[in-house]
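Minimal example, chain plus magnesium ion.
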Amino acid sequence: MDPELAALGEFGLIDLIRQRAQQRSPGTILGIGDDAALLAIPAGGGLLVTTDMLLEGIHFQWRWGRPRDLGRKAMAVNVSDIAAMGGRPLYVLLGLAIPLAGPSLTELEALLAGLEEEAATYGVTLVGGDTCSSRSGLVLAVTLLGVPPPGDAVLRSGAKPGDGLWVTGMLGGAAAGLLALELGLRPGAPWPADIARPAWLATEEEAAIQAAMAVHLTPAPRLAAGQALVGCATAMIDVSDGVASDAGHLCTESRVAARILASRIPIHAGAAAMARLTARDPLDLALRGGEDYELLFTTPADPRPTLAEIAPGLAVTRIGEVIAGQPVPRLARADGREEILAGGFDHLRVSG
Ligand code: ADP
Ligand code: MG
């Protein structure tokens, strides 16, 4: 165990976290330091509450990236859930289980700095948490509280036949980044000498693979997009387990089917490169790879005002439409074949 961390102990570490936590939400009556935080709830509306864990060995390997990025990601994946409701994040709680033979105090400080950095980006205050030791890996369990948008939160359940189906950004980047990390590539590092580099892989593809690793390690939640889509999106979900799976959730909750056009899927350039490198189908990476943290949403067939007017500069692609039928997404191939789109990541059904 790191001697500096041992000298500090649990309460010393909590004290350090307390000193570093910046107050960003005016409603924090009492933050870290008592048995529970005391928070003002904005009058009238409800409260959005979400929690997401990051586990060493399941979601990340310590050697893959920087502790700072891990802190950022723990926050970002939770912000993504609030974004998918169109809401505004306010308060965050951090559950921290630290392996005794694990990170040094310096690394933990970097992790906390990353979490604070991301909290600053989204105007969130760290108001509490829990700290204990872990017999296996590092665990980060983040709970985020926020407020729904004026009007109402955007749910998974509002899609209607005839609606358009859209996605923000590019897909498959995070899955490709994960493949690259598993292969032994590292962010910011030159191509390793012990990994065969195919002749077709030019500077451009290498840059795309680097960008894909960045998507995996430091996803950027679409908070502004989620908020901008309030009043226009009829249903919304963030893409955490892959479009195949998340479109499935949207269909189930809305009791509709969806037709997704394979030719319309915006495939991340890093996903195309990693698919070629590992003999995979790029479309499969884009549809079934998890952790892109883009938004998948539906709108009336011909939204007025248009999406370009609602969110200028927002990269969105219309990938299909909502139809009536069994509540599953269908994938329409360029040759006219149509199949049920299944798959995506399931923690309790991990195959080979
Ligand atoms: P209790 O024993 O009553 O649960 P703790 O000693 O666990 O209290 O926590 C004391 C205070 O420190 C509480 O306000 C708690 O929310 C906060 N705290 C503990 N661990 C963390 C952490 N990892 N991040 C932020 N706040 C924390
Ligand atoms: Mg107590």
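The two ends are 34 Å apart (CA to CA). The pocket of adenosine-5'-diphosphate (ligand 1) is lined by residues 14, 17, 32-35, 94, 96, 126, 128-131 (CB under 6 Å).
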